[in-house]
Design brief:
Pfam families: APH. The protein is of the alpha+beta class. It has helices at 11-22, 72-85, 113-116, 122-140, 161-178, 187-197, 248-251, 257-268, 274-294, 302-325, and strands at 28-33, 41-47, 52-57, 93-97, 102-106, 111-112, 208-210, 219-224, 227-233, 240-242. Strand 1 (28-33) and strand 2 (41-47) form a beta hairpin. 40% of the residues are buried.
């Protein structure tokens, strides 16, 4: 879907950026834009030496974005480096320039899980869900020095997960109210409801690396014998250091209960406790607020923008009611 955050790149732009990243001997013979993402521009690029790479370019500086979206290319580079070192399957990163907002990485051979699951047998879908849970657990085993987003200005960074997460919520509520987004409850009431349950966050004492965007479109799979396996995960720009349970927002939302259970079992090896369920509700509320706030700044087509606002607003209302009932 087209978003105003995606820079429009000409053939000359792509050639220049590829040569800057890979050297003057990198000759571009063809390219095409991926249309699945919603923030950065991403192009598949073919080179004369037979290599196929992906060029990823951050939004142009000066665009109006959400508060948490500052320095996301720096965040993605850090996620790639640290998660890959922990054994998380990721595309090889050939070039990374956080300041210039450019990454060049290998092009994966597989297809997105979002696409593949349409024709996969049910048992194969469950197996991939379980494997993805294990992969996510390996990522959250990586720890940082402080909680919060790894942006270079330090905003939201702290020694307390409760403090950092409440900063997340304050920032996104400020974004939503500044652009007059419709919310299921008044912003002050949402903040009070989240704060009421925030003491549960003090159970989190180690800042875990959380991808926070492992929906099926960001997971690539390959046929493997009679089944399927995860080739790699992509798009780590939404990552932060926080509660590992927050990873389940993308792993176990929007999918049937049996599949969610498989992902949770792969991730934790057990069911969630009651307190973890409440923490997960808090993190889903944060995601719904992000999606609501996005509708003011992305420039999505009117129909898709309205559908996103209706979906996220409905989910936000349901989770706020769930939280209020705890």
């Amino acid at each position: 879907m087209r978003s105003i955050t995606k820079p429009v790149l000409s053939h000359a732009d792509i050639t220049r950026l590829i040569r800057q990243g890979l050297g003057d001997d990198a000759v571009v013979t063809g390219h095409e834009e991926f249309t699945d993402g919603f923030f950065n521009a991403a192009h598949a690029v073919r080179l004369a030496d037979g290599r196929e790479v992906v060029l990823k370019v951050a939004p142009e500086k000066g665009l109006t974005m959400l508060t948490y979206e500052v320095d996301l290319m720096h965040t993605e580079i850090e996620f790639f480096e640290r998660a890959a070192a922990a054994g998380v399957p990721l595309p090889t990163m050939w070039h990374a320039d956080a300041e210039g907002g450019v990454m060049v990485m290998e092009r994966l051979r597989g297809v997105s899980f979002e696409q593949a699951k349409q024709t996969m047998a049910a048992e194969h879908v469950l197996a991939v869900r379980h494997e993805l849970g294990r992969i996510a657990a390996a990522g959250t085993a990586v720890t940082g020095e402080r909680f919060g987003y790894p942006r270079r200005d330090g905003r939201t960074r702290s020694a307390s997960w409760r403090e950092s997460f409440l900063c997340f919520v304050d920032d996104i509520l400020a974004d939503a109210t500044a652009t007059d987004r419709p919310l299921a409850r008044p912003a002050a009431e949402i903040r009070e409801l989240v704060a009421r349950h925030a003491p549960l966050l003090d159970a989190v004492t180690a800042p875990a690396l959380v991808h926070f965007d492992l929906w099926d479109g960001n997971v690539f799979v390959l046929a493997d014998g009679d089944g399927w396996r995860v080739e790699a995960v992509i798009d780590g720009e939404r990552a932060f250091y926080g509660d590992p349970i927050a990873e389940l927002v993308s792993l176990a939302t929007w999918i049937p209960e049996e599949q969610a259970a498989a992902a949770i079992d792969g991730f934790l090896g057990r069911a969630l406790t009651a307190d973890e369920q409440t923490r997960l509700t808090l993190y889903r509320i944060y995601l719904w607020l992000i999606l609501v706030a996005e509708t003011a700044v992305r420039g999505y087509p009117e129909k898709e923008n309205g559908e996103l606002l209706a979906m996220a607003g409905g989910q936000l209302a349901a989770d706020l009611d769930r939280l209020a009932a705890v």
